[in-house]
Amino acid sequence: MADFLSGDQLNHEIVKIISDPIDGIVLASPYMKFHDRIKRELIKLSGNPKIEIKVIIGKSDGNFKSSIDKDSLEFLMNLPNVQLYHENRLHAKFYGNGFDFILSSMNLYDFSQNTNIEFGVKLAAGTILDNRFEKEAFNFIQEVISQAELIYENVPVYEKKLLGLSKEYLGFKNILNKVDRKKRGIQEVIDEVIEEVKLKEGTKMGFCIRTGEPIPFNLKMPLSDKAFKTWSYFKDENFQEKYCHVTGEPSDGKTSFARPVLHKNWSKAKQLSK
After folding, report:
1. How many C-beta atoms surround the C-beta of residue 29 within 10 A?
2. Tens digits of residue pLDDT in 11-63
3. 190: containing domain
4. Are 259 and 240 in contact (CB under 8 A)?
5. Which of 44, 49, 137, 248 has the fewest C-beta atoms under 10 angstroms from its C-beta?
């Protein structure tokens, strides 16, 4: 069974695809800038780390960062079970949850959702195995994913309990990151920021535990304003961060909002706190 969708109905059904998955969702669109409605549904999914979120972007002449809004990219990077792919040839739009899926003209871009004339077709639940068209569409998007470049991935981390009969969710870790600015070298980033920002005389300086950029030293606020905005989506005080607030050196996930300083640097932190 297939339903023709347009206007607000199309927007509504895409949100439903995201809000009610079986075990995961696939969002494929050449260009992405998440509407607040999309963000709200993805935040809800983050409460169930078993839900796998696969996002495919493309059509950007090899520069994937021009295919996705910076805030949307940072938002995805904080989801516990997410895979971000880039396929430069992608021009199709596909939104599916393992149960229903939509083939559409509409990018997952708030401008498209709010202003353009868009339409799509929703293939109803229970038809994938019974209808050749639905099955071919589903298999095709899986083939696109297999050929695309994986550029970012977070995976959930569990601790086994009761002799392996159950497990407790501890958080998530990043296992692949081709978008992190630290690849340029942390000192290069620090030097650029210091040149651009004239520091007030006498200000004690530290480093953002997420980006490594210089910020005022404050153990209660070890994030830059922008990084804090991203962190506040989930407010996980134990989320593994990247840098030490005191020295700016890479922390390999040993710092967090709750513990922003590497253990070896606590004496320096105490001196700065005086």
Report:
1. 25
2. 889 999 998 888 899 999 999 999 888 988 998 888 788 899 999 999 767 67
3. 182-273
4. no
5. 44
